[in-house]
Amino acid sequence: MKKGFVIFIVMAAVACNKSITTMPDASKPTSTKYTNADVNTWVHENMTAYYLWSNNMPALAKTNSSINPMDYFYTVLNNYPITDRFSWIDSSSSNLINQLNGINTVLGIRINAFYTDEAKVNVALVISYVLKGSPAEQKGLKRGDIILTVDDKTITSANYSSALQNQTLKLGLGAYNNKVFSSTNTYITVTKAELQTNPILLDTVIKWSGKKVGYLAYLQFLISYDDSLRAVFGRFKNSGVNELVIDLRYNGGGYVTNSDLLTTLIVKDLGSKVDKVMNKKMYNDSYTKELTKQYGNAPFVTNFKMEPNNIGSLDRVFILTSGNTASASELIINNLKPFMNVILIGEHTYGKNVGSFTITDENKRWNYGLQPITFKILNSLDQSDYGTVNGFMPDYTIVDDILPYKLLGDPTETYLSKALNIIGPVAFKPNAIEGNLPHSKAYKVQEKAISDNPGLDKFDMFDKPINHKN
Questions:
Q1: Do the Cβ atoms of 358 and 24 come closer than 8 Å?
Q2: Which of 129, 291, 358, 365 could be disulfide-bonded to 299 (CB atoms 3.0-4.6 Å)?
Q3: CATH number of residue 173's parent domain
Q4: What's the per-residue H, E or C state across 226-269?
Q5: DSSP readout, 107-163?
Q6: Please, what is the average pLDDT of the chain?
Q7: Separation in Å, CA 123 to CA 65, 116, 442
Q8: What SS3 state is found at 308?
Q9: Cα separation values, 344 from 10, 249, 427, 465, Å
Q10: Burial class (CB in 10 A: 0-12, 13-18, 19+), 194
Q11: Residue 458: is its pLDDT beyond 70?
Q12: How far is residue 280's CA from residue 301's CA, in Å, rounded to a whole number?
């Protein structure tokens, strides 16, 4: 039976040799007309083969295979959107693959929304970060900038989530002083462009209370940035870093292999752990049998490997978290917990301990890309108990609601200052940098930060394909 072309991209770390082919553009129709039933039969067949909860799927005959495939996919999921709140389908496989590799059409900002009035009607969008090289950065926008209007329209609780969806946008900027939002009568017009995300938002070393603190703000786990990540830790190691803060509050996941690399660069005493278990994966029964027959135990276990830029001597690591910290970001936490003290600062994480890979039609009859959950991941102690709506709970609860925002890496920035306060409380002097005004709390509209491209608000873990017969 012919299944789909499989591309691993979720929460696994399996060696493979199979290359990823270029998928056809969804806007170009195929020459043969296929019915919904044709596509949906293919969907059901591949879900039966690879879906983690395949035993809970309805039989093909008990489904309505005549409906739109974009709707049909969700009818075969396991208790969607409660048990399975993660699987999805895209009408364009090329769009899906680009998205998972950090290629998107964006302004290049992520924002938090705050009410501007007691009636909770009007909303201000406060920029959480700006991507390097993005149209937003080129226009001078930065973390902490405030958007009060879009295309001369007031942002409200009814439209804030879609306010940034147009291709070209006129942004009306504002300020926040004495707990009041006000217009600065400054306007910037920005046009979205295709951008390869650079996930290394900032890396720096902070001298604090006799310590050297490495700080890394990391946005997405991309294998194309493996060497860049190694270089960051090379700088940390050469600088004599003896405390480490990893900012994952805006990181929704990515390639498991890149996540495993970050684990390896952080973990204490790597030399004693080489060739020992970092994490394990669990697939459905039929796929487990297929993989075992072809590869033995290799697809299920990821061991530590030597990395020269591993810091090596850390007893603890501080990880900054939020509701946007998901999937491969949570994997870092789970990977490290058996080996060192992992201190979480911020809000609870998203709660995704399962991963997926992309399935496309190798015969190119249609352009759909499936992203179903295909495995669960456990750490070296077989622990994987964070797959709930509360995810990992923080050791120190901090809400990103203090305005005006400080730049990431500023020792007085809300999240980082808490980590530094733990590292060296005597040296801690809030608001002592650059004469900034005291912060004030503002009322957030929702817990999670959102992007100017809704595709970036999906959370996932993924990997390269396993070399097997389709």
A1: no
A2: 291
A3: 2.30.42.10
A4: HHHHHHHHHHHHHCCCCEEEEECCCCCEEEHHHHHHHHHHHCEC
A5: --EEEEEEE-STTS-BEEEEEEEE-TT-HHHHTT--TT-EEEEETTEE-BTTTGGGT
A6: 89
A7: 43, 5, 11
A8: coil
A9: 23, 10, 21, 32
A10: exposed
A11: no
A12: 5
Residues with Cβ within 8 Å of residue 200, at least 6 apart in sequence: 216, 217, 218, 219, 225, 228, 229, 232
Tell whether 380 is covered by a domain.
Answer: no
List CB contacts of 102: < 8 A, sequence separation 6 or more: 196, 197, 199, 220, 222, 224, 254
Is residue 47 a contact partner of residue 54, using CB atoms and an 8 Å limit? yes
For 337, the enclosing helix (H) or strand (E) is none
Structurally, how many domains does the chain consist of? Answer: 1
In the chain the first and final C-alpha atoms are separated, in Å, by 8
Domain region containing 109: 105-196
- 202: helix, strand or coil: strand
3 state SS of 319: strand
Q: What is the pLDDT of residues 368-410, one digit of tens each?
A: 999 999 999 999 999 999 999 999 999 999 999 999 999 999 9
E strand map for 266-383 = 277-282, 301-303, 316-321, 341-346, 354-360, 369-371, 373-379
Instruction: Tell whether 310 is covered by a domain.
Output: no
Is 152 within a domain? yes
What is the largest distance, in Å, between two alpha-carbon atoms of the chain? 72
182 lies in a domain? yes
Q: Measured between alpha carbons, how far is 56 from 467 in angstroms, rounded to an integer? A: 27
Q: What is the pLDDT of residues 16-49, one digit of tens each?
A: 222 233 333 444 444 478 999 999 999 999 999 9
pLDDT tens column, 212-231: 999 999 999 999 999 999 99
